[in-house]
Amino acid sequence: MNVIAHLSDVHIDDRRSMDRTRAVMEHLDALPCDLDAVLVTGDIADHALPAEYEAARKLLTSRHPTLICPGNHDERAAFRRHLLGEEPSVAPIDQVLRAGGFVIALCDTSVPGEDYGRMEETTLAWLEDVLAGTSAPVLVGFHHPPVTLGIPYVDGIKQYGEERLAGIAARSPHLVAFLAGHAHTAAATTFAGRPLLVAPGVVSTTRLPWETADENDLVHLDHAPSLAFHVLHDDHRLTTHYRPVTMPGMPATPGPAGR
């Protein structure tokens, strides 16, 4: 069994966002067991500023193997230089982790200057090569979900060109699941016959359309930062658990009733 922590949308820009991100990462580092991976699926900096990435680089350091991809709030060259410590480039930031009998392929779906997502041809070719190079179970992650989630303003900036990704999945029976962020809400659905698991937002939580009549009141700012734990079982089945992280000043999450 492998356990992968999955967080998203930290939007580093002020003390509040940094405190919430720090709480989540400290929670992970304090766990009594080692995780197989920590994934952070995009929107790392809120304004793509060097100082935001430099703060994120410190905050997202972990004792667990960590993989981070950009989202629509990120800028590739600054992301590479100030977060990854690489030479700046506007090429897609695609990364792979091979560990413990499974593979994670983290794809860049950001489109420079746009809020919607789309995989470039080079990313699609890279993903096909990763899948062709292993028979181990593969989890594919990215920022933008390639399906609608029933949240209009999120659905308008989803990942487009998704039929190309679906074609790759159809040729890859060892592709177990897709992991995404962007929506700022924990969600579970399917895409291309696979589970699609969306991590909740660390910085805020999206209000669902039936939770508000005010079209300008789109987010909960008082909800605890949350994350997902994905459990990859030996039979390649995936189970996902969603967890809030209590911060100072927030009421503790109530536990189960006593038996």
From TrEMBL:
The Calcineurin-like phosphoesterase domain, residue ranges = 4-185
Leader peptide range in chain numbering = none
Q: Which residues cross the membrane?
A: none
Q: Which lineage is the organism of this entry classified under, starting from the top rank?
A: Bacteria, Bacillati, Actinomycetota, Actinomycetes, Streptosporangiales
The record's section on PANTHER family has: CYCLIC NUCLEOTIDE PHOSPHODIESTERASE CBUA0032-RELATED (PTHR42988:SF2), PHOSPHOHYDROLASE (PTHR42988)
A Gene Ontology molecular function term for this protein is: hydrolase activity
| Keyword set includes DNA repair | no
Matching entries from Gene3D superfamilies are given as:
3.60.21.10
Q: What is this protein called?
A: Metallophosphoesterase
Entry annotated with the keyword Transport: no
Q: Which keywords fit this entry according to its UniProt record?
A: Hydrolase, Iron, Metal-binding
Q: What is the top-level taxon of the source organism? A: Bacteria
Entry's InterPro entries?
Calcineurin-like_PHP (IPR004843), CNP_phosphodiesterase-III (IPR050884), Metallo-depent_PP-like (IPR029052)
Family as reported in the entry's similarity comment? Belongs to the cyclic nucleotide phosphodiesterase class-III family.
